[in-house]
Specification:
alpha+beta, Immunoglobulin-like, four-stranded antiparallel sheet, 7 helices
Length: 208
């Protein structure tokens, strides 16, 4: 989005704004085609989050870094026809992580058809489960042995060697974490998952 006055559209669709703030968003959207289009993309977000049963959610202490979604969305390699869905899922992943629900969502997305692999490199240990989700693949990953608060980026590599951003999160103060990411890569075309740390340093590769 390039609108310099863009309001909090994500908070609007989730019902997290007060009456005055909601009215301000609605007035802005009425006169801004860019934000109206953005709002149309985000309107499916509540239904997406409702897919996760509340009783299955487990609190996880996380502290998403500033600009998390913007960095993930900018790095995501998605085809035009799938851009809206990919953006929506990345927003959902960022919001779910922000309220500490990553582990519960991950458990719901990793179904019986999931492929799981584990790998280690030095002190870093990781396990990832890949399962079909919509028109892409959900990636449930557990990591340990990282630096406290390190920003981890998960990258999906397809069978053509192309790389696709699949999510970004900070580790806990103990240097571990569990998150769920999503990529447009079809499960059958997923070759490996690479976990990158601060500065783009490679932490570990998991062959799938």
């Amino acid at each position: 989005m390039t609108c310099r006055e863009a309001p909090a559209l994500g908070a609007y669709v989730l019902g997290a704004l007060g009456p005055d703030e909601r009215r301000a968003v609605e007035e802005h959207v009425d006169s801004c085609a860019e934000c109206a289009a953005e709002l149309a993309e985000l309107e499916g977000l509540p239904a997406l989050l409702d897919r996760v049963p509340h009783e299955a959610l487990e609190p996880v202490a996380v502290a998403p870094s500033a600009g998390l979604f913007d960095r993930v969305a900018a790095a995501a390699d998605v085809r035009p026809a799938r851009r809206s869905r990919a953006r929506l899922l990345l927003v959902a992943a960022a919001l779910v992580g922000a309220v500490g629900l990553g582990a519960g969502v991950a458990g719901q997305l990793a179904g019986d058809d999931a492929r799981s692999r584990s790998a280690s490199a030095g002190p870093v240990r990781a396990t990832v489960s890949a399962s079909a989700d919509g028109d892409g693949t959900a990636l449930d990953i557990t990591v340990a042995g990282l630096r406290a608060g390190e920003i981890c980026t998960m990258v999906a590599v397809d069978d053509q060697g192309d790389r696709h951003a699949a999510g970004e999160w900070p580790t806990s103060p103990a240097g571990d974490g569990r998150w769920v990411g999503w990529t447009t890569v079809d499960p059958g075309a997923l070759d490996e998952v690479v976990l990158l740390g601060d500065g783009g340093r490679e932490l570990v590769r998991l062959d799938l």
